[in-house]
Amino acid sequence: MSRLVVIDLPGGPRFVDELRRVWDAGDAAFPVDQRLPAAAKRDLCAAMRVGAEVESGDALVVATSGSTGAPKGVVLTHDAVAASAWATSERLHVDADDHWLACLPLSHVGGLSVVTRALHTGTRLTVLPGFDAAAVEDVGATLVSLVATVLNRIDPSRFRTIVLGGSRPPDDRPANCVTTYGMTETGSGVVYDGVPLDDVEVDITPDGEIRLRAPMLLRCYRDGTTPLDAAGWFATGDLGVWLPDGQLHVAGRRGDLIITGGENVWPEAVEAALADHPGVADVMVRGVDDPEWGQLVEALIVPVDDPPTLASIRAHVKAHHPAYMAPKRLAFVESLPRTSLGKLRRSPHT
Questions:
Q1: What are the tens digits of pLDDT across the range 261-285?
Q2: Pairwise CA distance, residues 37 & 31, whole Å
Q3: Sign of the C-alpha dihedral, residues 4, 70, 343, 218?
Q4: CATH hierarchy code of domain 257-332
Q5: pLDDT tens for each residue of 119-135
């Protein structure tokens, strides 16, 4: 009987050896977040039913980031993991001279998929216990997966290709950065620089939601439920459009959309407009309930030195967008709430 086995180890050769051992025994692996305290690890392992049976062919259970609600356990099969490994390697033109570096949390698919694709393709691999700028640059790897929040801490020219996921990429991203779109349920990124990987089907529903169908999709969640419909389509909860050049543009999460006075405002568009404001070090935009407008646009800002005024913030946004997109509320914070992969946590706010 195959079962789910927890891997409670930091990134490194021992983690890779244990993953191989679990797979060789016919079991599935659940990498647990090393930053969690012992009690939280126990609770998560219980929720994922560590030690209980898995289906033959299951390779991994990966906890979703849990940005809202309790994390779900995404079940990925060996076939799905292999499909992801070969499709991403083909798109990145990985060859025998390449060397992967894994330095993101291995409890998340963005870090774990680096390990699994290297194992499937036989590519040289180095796994670090976490991100450390000096260590990342000293490895001598040609390929690395990073998030935007750490990109400015390294010399990007040290790598042939940087796979960038997690959150909105910087406007001045280096030419060797490939942006990805995907999630835990897709086993890693499935759209690279707006172009779906081979065998990945993308559909935009009439109301704008992105649906995906691909061989690297999850089998089900750990509780036995599946988000796939009868035809195998996965509704992502993201809204998007096809651009004139044929690339997929992801506007954002359906729940992140701000509707103010009947007008639609995407937070990421406002954040991008404020990215080059001289008084803004970091910014998050979200909707705040309002009895008159339905929602107001609020900007949470980490200031550089002198905090910018609301008037200057509004003027900066209005230089790029209609006036209704300009924030009507402003708050200053020391740091923004993010997941471990750099995604902003836009919790409901009233």
A1: 888 898 988 999 998 999 999 999 9
A2: 15
A3: positive
A4: 3.30.300.30
A5: 999 999 999 999 999 99
